[in-house]
Write a structure and sequence with these properties.
Layout: H1 7-26, H2 29-45, H3 47-54, H4 60-74, H5 78-89, H6 96-110, E1 114-120, H7 126-140, E2 144-150, E3 158-162, E4 165-168, H8 171-185
Parallel strand pairs: 1-2
Antiparallel strand pairs: 1-3, 3-4
Helix pairs in contact: 1-5, 1-6, 2-6, 4-5
Length: 186
C-alpha cells in the first residue's frame, strides 16, 4: 500500500494492516469487515460518537469505557471489539475512519478486487449498484468492491474514487464549473 505523508493515514494503515493480519490468521476477515461497517454506520449516525472519537478532551479511560459499551450494545464482539478497545486505550480513536477505509482496501486487494468509494446524492438501488460495479469492473479489469455514502449536497450524480482516479459527475461540481466559466466571461 502506498505510504501517505499524513500521520493519521500512517497510523490508520498500520493498525488496519495489523487487524487484517489477525483476522486473516483467525479466518474472520468477512466478519471483521462487517463489524467495521457496522461501527462506521454508528459513527455516521451519531454526532456524539463522532465527538467522542475526535475530541482530545476525553481521557483514554473514558473513551475505552464508552467504546466498550457501544461495541457490546451493537454486538461488535471478538476481534473487532477488542481492536476498538485497544485503539481507544492507545488514544487512536481519531484515526478509526481511516483504519476502516484502509482495512477495506487491504481486504479488497487480498480478494483480488479493486476498492472504490462512491458518493451519491441519494441512496442507490441494488440495480444501480450492480450496474455501477459492472461499469467499474470494465474500467479496472477486475471485480470492484464499492463503499457508498450519501451526500445530498451533491444535488445529483456521483463522485467515484478508485485508486488515484476520481470521476466527479455531480451536479454540484457542474454548477460550480458553470459559475466559474460565467465569471470569466463577464
Amino acid at each position: 500500500m502506498a505510504q501517505s505523508s499524513s500521520p493519521i493515514s500512517g497510523v490508520a494503515e498500520r493498525y488496519a494492516g495489523s487487524l487484517f493480519e489477525l483476522a486473516s490468521q483467525a479466518n474472520t476477515v468477512a466478519k471483521v469487515e462487517a463489524d467495521l461497517n457496522g461501527f462506521e454506520a454508528l459513527l455516521a449516525g451519531s454526532a456524539d460518537l463522532t465527538r467522542l472519537i475526535n475530541s482530545p478532551v476525553f481521557s483514554s479511560e473514558d473513551q475505552a469505557k464508552a467504546i466498550a459499551a457501544i461495541a457490546d450494545r451493537a454486538g461488535i464482539t471478538g476481534l473487532t471489539g477488542n481492536f476498538l478497545r485497544v485503539v481507544a486505550k492507545n488514544r487512536r480513536l481519531f484515526a478509526v475512519p481511516g483504519m476502516i477505509k484502509a482495512f477495506r482496501q487491504i481486504a479488497a486487494e487480498h480478494r483480488g478486487e479493486a476498492a472504490a468509494e462512491v458518493t451519491s446524492a441519494h441512496e442507490l438501488t441494488a440495480a444501480q449498484e450492480t450496474e455501477l460495479k459492472a461499469a467499474l469492473k470494465s474500467v479496472a479489469g477486475k471485480d470492484v468492491a464499492i463503499s457508498v455514502t450519501v451526500d445530498p449536497s451533491l444535488l445529483g450524480g456521483l463522485v467515484v474514487k478508485m485508486g488515484s482516479r476520481q470521476i466527479d459527475t455531480s451536479l454540484k461540481t457542474k454548477l460550480n464549473s458553470l459559475k466559474l466559466a460565467l465569471k470569466e466571461v463577464g
